[in-house]
Structures are given as C-alpha cells and as structure tokens.
Specification:
The structure holds two protein chains of two kinds. Chain A is an alpha+beta fold. Chain A is 52% helix and 21% strand. A four-stranded antiparallel beta sheet of chain A has the order 1-2-4-3, covered by helices on one side. In chain A, β3 and β4 form a beta hairpin. Chain B is α+β, with helices and mostly antiparallel strands. Helix content of chain B is 53%, strand content 18%. Chain B contains four helices and four strands. A four-stranded antiparallel beta sheet of chain B has the order 1-2-4-3, with helices on one face. Classes of the chains: A alpha+beta, B alpha+beta. Chains A and B meet through α1, α2, α3 and β1 of A and α1, α2, α4 and β3 of B. β1 of chain A pairs antiparallel with β3 of chain B, so a sheet runs across the interface.
C-alpha cells in the first residue's frame, strides 16, 4: 500500500512540555557540575577549618569560603605580627634592664658587703658617683698601723671584675695619732669600651 | 527518512549539544575563582599559623623572663621610705630622688632597691654636705646630698 502524506505543508513543532524537558535535560549537566563544585569547595573549606582549628578558634575567625575570609585572616595576621614586635621590644627592654640591674646591684653589693665596720679599720665614704659605665668613690680610712688589708683595697680588688679599668689613688696617708693613720683614697673605674655593648654574663 | 529531514534533526541535535556544553562551560569562571581562592586561603592560613605560633612563642619567652622577677616593688613602696623634704619624681622609666638625707636613709633606699628584682639604681651621685666625713650637721646628724636615678618598675607590666 502506498504511504500518503496528507499534511505535506504542515510545519513540525514540538510540544511545550517536551520543550521544557529538553531544556531541563540541557541545563542538567551544567547545574550538576555547579552543585558538585560548590559542595566540593564547602567540603574543602571544612577540611581547612579542621586543619587550622587551633589558630582559627584562638583568632576568632570562622571560614565561609569567600574573599572576606582572606581579609579577616590578613587583618589577624598583621595584628599578631604587631603584637610579636611589641613583645620582642619588651623582651629586649627587659633584658637590657636585667643587664643594667645586674651591674648596678653587683656594684652596690660589693661596696656594702666589703664595708668593714671593725675598730681596726674605720672607713667613711665622702663621695660616690655611679652611672653604669663608670664610678668614683672617695673615702677616708682611719686605721691602725699593721693593718694589712684596708676596705679601699678590698673594694678596689673586687670591683675590678665589674669595672676592669679601675684604679686607686691615695691622696694622702698621714699619722694622726700614735700608730693611727688617716688615709684619703679615690677609687675610679669604668667598663671597657667593648664591654659597654656586650651583655654582662649572669 | 528523507535527507532534509535528517539534516534538520542533526542540526537540532548539534545546537542542543552546543547549548548544553555552553551551560557546562559557564561553570568555568567559578571553578577558576574557587581554585584561586583555595590557593590564597591555604597560603594565608599557613602565614597566619606562622605568625600566631611566633606570637605565642614570644609571649611564652616574655612570661619566662618575667618570672625571674620575684620580689616586685612599686613606685609607691619606694615613696614610703624616701625621707620627707627629698624630691621624689618619676618620668617615663626613671625615678629621680634628689635631696639631703642621712647616710642611714640613703642606705635604706639602696637596701630596698637591692632587695627588689624590678628596680635598679641607674645612677647615683652622693656628696657629703660638708665635704668631710668628720664634720657633722648642727643637729648632730651627718647629711649627704643625694642625686639618684632609679629604674621605674611601672613601665614593666
């Protein structure tokens, strides 16, 4: 039997429903890929949150996976850097204080520890200057003849460790009474130029 | 099937596939953006972690240094032992003590500073008022002129 085309002039059209289905099918791979990318990214962000949990929680940052995270992280990082610098300068300041305090305390300790108060060597200090780099002590000593080691000598000897450039100058040493002598001494000292910048060993 | 009909179908299929591919490729910018963001985020986090660890380390070191200071005193504590009439001022990290006092009072100040771990005498200039140790003041007391610079512990917090 011969096939007859009764609608030769009819233009073929698709139904609206079919069109919608075709459109959905066409968009499906794109949408699916987008969903996959976004969920993979969210998962990745979650992994990063877990990996850097300590830092993030202590810094009060919550990751959302957008550019605002970068700004928050950068701000916090700069804050830590500034804080670290401040702490380092505080440490240097404290260490510098310890060095100066060590020198100062040692100086006064030597003087106070070796100040003899016995009757055989009566010493009086009339002048004292000290400024971490140099010192000067002027003292009067009344002593009995035969006294071998005087306060001034002990102090001069012990201060040499702290101030290597120290020297003693006896201004006078006269007999004021029978067997009793009066001595006026000036002890001066300073740190060596190389010692000024190097740290004092504790 | 007739040839024009087949051509039409093929054309439809090709345009359909091209459109589908275009929609698929529309995700490319977002994918690239995420890749860039990921790389930046990882490097930022690493850098943040480094800064954070350094900050914690420095803080621990500072705390360790501070623990060396056991016997702490304040400006007010020192003020209590400085005799009346003696100038006692502070400026930044220095305390200035200037005036006449007895050697015992001077010794007390020095002894107090020596016992603390957050104070130190930075400079001292002591002169006997009468330039001689054997001359005493009118009231029987020997007075000495003291000019001292002491480290102010208030700057250490």
């Amino acid at each position: 039997m011969e096939k007859l085309n009764l609608y030769e002039s009819k233009v073929k059209r698709i139904k609206f429903k079919t069109f919608l289905i075709l459109l959905a099918v066409m968009a499906l791979p794109g949408v699916a890929l987008r969903i996959y990318i976004e969920s993979e990214w969210a998962h990745n962000v979650k992994l990063l949150s877990v990996e850097y949990h300590t830092v993030l929680s202590n810094s009060g940052i919550e990751l959302h996976g957008n550019r605002r995270d970068l700004i928050a992280i950068d701000t916090k990082k700069r804050e830590y850097d500034i804080k670290s610098k401040m702490i380092i300068s505080q440490q240097k300041y404290l260490l510098d204080f310890f060095e100066k305090a060590y020198l100062s305390k040692k100086f006064f300790k030597i003087i106070y520890d070796h100040w003899r108060k016995d009757e055989r060597d009566w010493a009086v200090m009339s002048e004292m200057t000290f400024d971490l780099k140099k010192f000067s002590l002027e003292m009067y000593e009344v002593y009995l003849k035969g006294e071998k080691i005087l306060t001034s000598e002990i102090i001069d000897k012990t201060l040499k460790d702290l101030f290597p450039l120290s020297s003693t100058k006896t201004l006078y040493d006269v007999e004021v009474f029978k067997n009793m002598y009066l001595r006026r001494t000036v002890i001066r000292g300073g740190v060596a130029p190389s010692q000024e910048k190097t740290s004092v060993s504790h | 099937m007739e040839l024009p009909h087949l051509r039409k179908k093929l054309a439809f299929l090709i345009s359909y596939a091209v459109l589908a591919l275009s929609l698929l490729l529309l995700n490319l910018p977002r994918y690239m953006e995420i890749r860039k963001l990921d790389a930046k985020l990882v490097s930022s986090l690493k850098s943040l972690e480094k800064s954070y660890n350094e900050y914690i380390d420095q803080k621990k070191t500072l705390d360790m240094i501070k623990t060396r200071m056991k016997n702490l005193a304040s400006f007010e504590d020192l003020k209590k032992i400085v005799p009346k009439g003696v100038s006692f001022t502070k400026k930044e990290d220095r305390i200035f003590v200037k005036g006449l006092m007895t050697p015992e009072e001077f010794n007390e100040i020095i002894d107090f500073v020596l016992r603390t771990s957050n104070m130190a005498v930075y400079s001292v200039d002591v002169k006997n008022e009468f330039r001689s140790p054997f001359v005493v003041g009118e009231d029987g007391r020997t007075l000495i002129m003291v000019d001292m610079e002491i480290f102010n512990p208030e700057v250490i917090r």
